[in-house]
Design goal:
Layout lengths: L1 E6 L1 H9 L4 E4 L11 E6 L5 E14 L1 H8 L7 H7 L6 E16 L1 H4 L9 E4 L1 H7 L6 H34 L5 H9 L6 H14 L4 H23 L1 E5 L4 E5 L10 E3 L2 H32 L6
Parallel strand pairs: 1-3
Antiparallel strand pairs: 1-6, 2-5, 3-4, 4-5, 7-8, 8-9
Amino acid sequence: MNVLLSIKPTYVEEIINGSKKYEFRRVIFRAPHEIKKVFIYSSRPVKKIIGTFTIGKIIKGTPNELWNQCSDFGGIGKEGFFNYFKNKQQGFAISIENLEIFPKPIDPYTSITDFKAPQSFCYIDDDLLELLTEKPVDYKEINKNFNEKCGEILRMAVHIEDYFDFFISNYFCAPQDRKTFLLEDLIITTLNFDRKKNIFFKICQEEGIEKSITKDINEKLKFIQSIRNRVAHDAVWSYPDKNEIILQKRKSVTYKRDELIITDDLVKEIDEKRLFCINKISEVHLKISNKSKEQNPDDFW
């Protein structure tokens, strides 16, 4: 026996992302031990069957008991949880295991004659089961690749910041000695990225560094910063029908604006701009250093 379970898209996303491992219900299936698979129907506005899971266990208890046991992986806030179980003496928490996401979500309204979405759940006959059993996508691998790319982007931004730390501390405290590292550790590293960048460009201006150099650095830094900030702060959304994960600015999620897909080409472009920036920062450091040597041969950094 198999079941088609209707779940709101918000909670479907939580299940896919791994933050929701319990599905709460006021009414449970008959003979739960006979349920082989639970098919996930993502309700309005998605209205598609997106994957399956198996039941690990079903916990029965009062709302307070369920909250205490399952809230860490319930994927729902406390207020929403207790509103759902309002005036109910007991409920159920279904443990989600062996989650599988379809390569392409199934539109039951075009695939199944006279389909009617269940209010809560319905049982699936053999004909419907045959239609729904497709090979799942390895969504864990997609999620892993996404996280690795995001981590690489953040690492590259930090690498540039390290070069700013070195440049500024050595400019103000030269020749390099213990005080140079104290300056970097106690003051420079406490500044945010924009502040360090502005100090760097002010030094370049004071030292007569060509504007074309600082302009090129600034343009590439703006691009890297914009992507880095989105990786750090955007909302993450999964699209099983496209086998991809995208970033959206939080204020634009409702309207599906400003989507960003983290691709290999994007990571490569950021890496190229990173290398350009650190090479130019090093060149500026060397140029100022050589200038100081010429002017003060006995006291240079």
